[in-house]
Design a protein that fits this description.
The chain has 6 helices and 23 strands. Strand 11 and strand 12 form a beta hairpin. The termini are far apart. Helix content is 28%, strand content 30%. About 6% of the residues have low confidence. The longest helix is centred in the first third of the chain and has 59 residues. With 388 residues, the protein is an alpha+beta fold. The protein has an 18-stranded mixed β-sheet that branches. A 3-stranded mixed β-sheet has the order 20-23-22. The chain folds into 3 domains: 38 residues, no CATH class; 197 residues, Sandwich (Jelly Rolls); 78 residues, Phage tail protein beta-alpha-beta fold (3-Layer(bab) Sandwich). It is elongated and about 125 Å long.
């Protein structure tokens, strides 16, 4: 009998898969076939193989237990992280409610000056502050960076209070014909449109506190990403919740509606108990019902940030409506003029003057064949040879 056959016999024996003849013992079987045993220690080989098989079985069991242990630890960590995140988001939502309750004031922006108003109702006239001037209020250092930019420096202070009653709120009010750029303490930027207010909760209640804002009017937001402190923007029509993104939000009181235009990132719109997720390139209008669509021309929603009115390839109606938003006008009247053909005013740019008279004069110079006048808060355009 060969050594290979002997090893196979021993393996069968260990696996208890032997024939009656093989059960007589390896030595007997070898003797019957060859009449003399081989020079091998069969019992020693038998014992060695049995030891190796037992060791391999133990090793396999240990490996399996290690895999099961790692899987159990990973599952426990996953559940713990999920529960912690759920508790954190719940706390963030509750704190957002504390911060934002009643944050939007009644009444539209009036006057011709831009103000920064503090929690105690004191106000600072932003237009008259010198560039570089720093104000210290409510644990904040607020600096005027340039003629229409203020920046909040340093992180918000923790007030260790489970309610928002001790939270300080600052409000920037911008009249029609002006715009302001506000840089928040986390580096997020808000471009505030004319006739708008931004309310900013400058303190934090605890580590779960959101970056709470309120908006009346229109603003463009560039939000720095922070998964632990989402931004919550309240309007009269709903709340926008974001982690980090760029979007335009329009919510004037006079319109009783909301329009959100998302350029990148993602936002959640909470309205009447429902939550709507928006993806890049989408625009949502909330009036009596919600209408969702896609951005065709982002300049329609965000072009107001430019320092001029762009007349290139645009018709009269488009340009006049942008002027109405900028100056707070209440309508227009066209008489015997084509308001829909591109090329109104011959193209080019019109500066965004701080008042209407220089704007009207500039338009008259660009279109001498038209009569352009103001009737109260309404722009009237007609041919020069036409009477009212």
């Amino acid at each position: 009998m060969s050594k290979e056959k002997i090893i196979l016999l021993i393996v069968n024996r260990l696996c208890k898969n032997m024939s009656p003849e093989e059960n007589d013992g390896p030595d007997a079987l070898v003797t019957r076939e060859d009449e003399k045993p081989l020079d091998m220690d069969i019992p020693a080989i038998d014992n060695r193989l049995e030891t190796l098989i037992k060791n391999d079985t133990v090793r396999r069991q240990h490996a399996a237990w290690r895999r099961y242990s790692i899987a159990a630890v990973f599952a426990a960590l996953s559940v713990g992280i999920w529960l912690g995140y759920s508790r954190q988001r719940t706390a963030q939502d509750k704190n957002a409610d504390k911060y934002l309750a009643g944050i939007i004031p009644e009444g539209e922006v009036t006057g011709t000056q831009s103000y920064l108003t503090f929690s105690n109702r004191d106000s600072v006239l932003l237009d008259t502050l010198s560039v570089g001037h720093t104000i210290q209020r409510d644990g904040c250092n607020i600096q005027k960076k340039d003629h229409n930019t203020i920046i909040y420096m340093g992180p918000p202070a923790i007030i260790n209070n489970n309610t928002a009653t001790g939270c300080s709120r600052h409000m920037v009010s911008v009249p029609y014909g002006h715009s302001w750029h506000i840089i928040l303490s986390d580096g997020s930027a808000v471009y505030l449109c004319p006739g708008s207010r931004l309310i900013y909760a400058v303190n934090a209640i605890d580590k779960y506190s959101p970056r709470a804002l309120g908006l009346q009017g229109e603003a463009f937001f560039e939000v720095k990403h922070d998964p632990y402190h989402p931004v919550a923007v309240e309007t009269k029509k709903g709340v926008i919740s974001v982690l980090g993104t760029r979007f335009d939000l329009r919510a004037y009181l006079r319109e009783d509606s909301l329009r959100a235009t998302l350029l990148n990132g993602s936002i959640l719109l909470k309205y009447n108990g429902d939550t709507l997720k928006m993806d890049p390139g989408e625009e949502v209008y909330v009036g009596k019902k919600i209408q969702k669509g896609y951005i065709i021309d982002s300049t329609v929603s965000t072009g107001w940030r430019k320092s001029f009115f762009d007349c290139n390839n645009r018709n009269m109606l488009q340009i006049i409506r942008e002027m109405e938003d900028w100056y707070g006008l209440r309508g227009h009247r066209f008489k015997n003029v084509d308001s829909l053909t591109p090329g109104f005013l011959g193209g080019g740019h019109i500066p965004k003057y701080s008042s209407l008279p220089p704007l009207i004069n500039h338009m008259k110079e660009m279109a001498p064949d038209l009569s352009i006048t103001l009737d109260g808060t309404m722009i009237v355009i007609r041919p020069n040879n036409t009477t009212t």
